[in-house]
Amino acid sequence: DWTMGAYREEAIQKIRDEVGDKNVICALSGGVDSSVAAALIHEAVGDQLTCVFVDHGLLRKDEAAEVVGMFRDNMNLSVIHADEADLFLGELDGVSDPETKRKIIGRLFIDVFQKYADQIEGAEFLAQGTLYPDVIESVSFSGGPSVTIKSHHNVGGLPEKMGLKLVEPLRELFKDEVRALGRELGLPASFIGRHPFPGPGLAIRCPGEITRPKLEILREADAVYIDQIRKHGLYDDIWQAFVAILPVRTVGVMGDGRTYDYACALRAVTSVDGMTADYYPFTHEFLGETATRIINEVPGINRVTYDITSKPPGTIEWE
Ligand code: XMP
Asked: Which atom of ligand 1 is nearest to the CA of 154?
C-alpha cells in the first residue's frame, strides 16, 4: 500500500545514505520542483544543505522576499540571497534578441551560482529537482536531431565542472506527485499551486530592450492582473498568466491631457504540460475591469490588449 508518507520516509533515508556527513548545495528558484527537493533534503540532512537563490533582477513584484522569507523564516533553511540584479541588467543592456538574452542569463546564472557555491565549505553534492519526465525527455532526445525552439537554461554540465555529485530525490516522480510530496512536507498550498515561471523571468516578457523603468511598470501591471485573477477565483483554472510590456508607446487621453505611454498585453492559457496551450476565455467584463484597473493604477501604461493566440502556432511566452 503506497502512500506519499511512506515515500517521504524512504526518500529521506536514501538521501541520508547517499550524502552521509557531506554538505549539499541547491539552486533554489522558487519553483515547485526545486522547492520540494530543498524541503525534502533539508528534512533529511538539516544544516548540511545550503540553498542559493539567484536574484537576476528579473523577478516579479515581491518575489525574492516571499521565496527567501518562506524558506528562511518558516522552514528554517539556510538560504543565500544572491542579489545580482546589477550584473544581469548590466550585461543585458541594449540586448533585444530573445536567444541572446537567454544565453546571457544562462551563462551569468552559472557563474553566479558557482561564485556563491565556492564559498560553501566542503560541498560535495548538488541537489536538483529533476522529475521523471525530465529524465525520459533527455533520453528520447539523445541520438536524434533535435529542434530547439527556445533554449531553456538549467545548471546542466555544472556538476561535472564543479566536481560535484548530484542528488536528485524527485527523479521517480511526476509533477502531481511532487505537489503531493510538497504538501506532505508542509509547503503552503498557495506555494505548491503557483504557476510556472521561466528561468529568464521578466526578460522574455519585455520584448526588445530591457530597461529598469520598463521592468518596474511590468511588475506593477502583472501584480494587478494576478490580483484580478485571484479575486475572481480563476487562478487554479489557469496554467499560466502574465503581462508582457510591449516595445511601443501609444497615444491616449487622461482627463484633459494627452498621454504617450506603453501598451501591454495580457496572456493567460490553459495547458496540460506547456507543450500545447489554449488562450483562457475570460469574460469581456473581466477583461474590461482589468484593463481599467491597470490603466488607473499603473503609471506608464495607457493601453491594454488581450492575447488570444493558442500554442501552436504561438508560444506561451512572447519571446
Ligand atoms: P513557450 O513560451 O515555449 O513556454 O510556449 C513553454 C513553457 O516553458 C516556459 N519557458 C521557459 N522556462 N526557461 C525556462 O525555464 C526558458 O527560457 C523558458 N522559455 C519558456 C514557459 O514559461 C512555459 O511554461
From this structure: 15
CATH match of 4-192 with 3.40.50.620: yes
The reply to whether 4-192 and 211-306 are identical in fold is no
Distance 284 CA to ligand 1 centre (A): 28
- 204: CA distance to ligand 1 center in Å? 9
* DSSP string over 228-291: HHHHTT-GGG-SEEEEEEEEEEEEEEETTEEEEEEEEEEEEEE-SSSSSBEE----HHHHHHHH
Q: Is 102 in the pocket of ligand 1 (CB under 6 A)?
A: yes
**What is the C-alpha separation between 206 and 216, in angstroms, rounded?**
11
C-beta separation of 136 from 175 below 8 A? no
- Ranges of each domain in the chain: 4-192, 211-306
Q: So what's the ipTM on this one?
A: 0.99
C-beta atoms surrounding 32 within 10 Å: 23
What's the CA gap between 25 and 52, in Å, rounded? 7
Separation of alpha carbons 258 and 70, rounded Å: 44
Predicted pLDDT at 161: 75
Q: 10-residue block means of pLDDT along the chain (319 residues)?
A: 87 98 95 95 97 97 96 94 98 98 96 92 92 76 47 61 90 93 94 94 98 98 98 98 98 94 98 95 98 98 98 97
Supply angle C-alpha 248, 251, 253, rounded to 5.
Answer: 145
Ligand 1 atom 9 nearest Cα: 198
Is 115:108 a contact under the CB 8 Å cutoff? Answer: no
Q: 211-306: which CATH architecture? A: 2-Layer Sandwich (3.30)
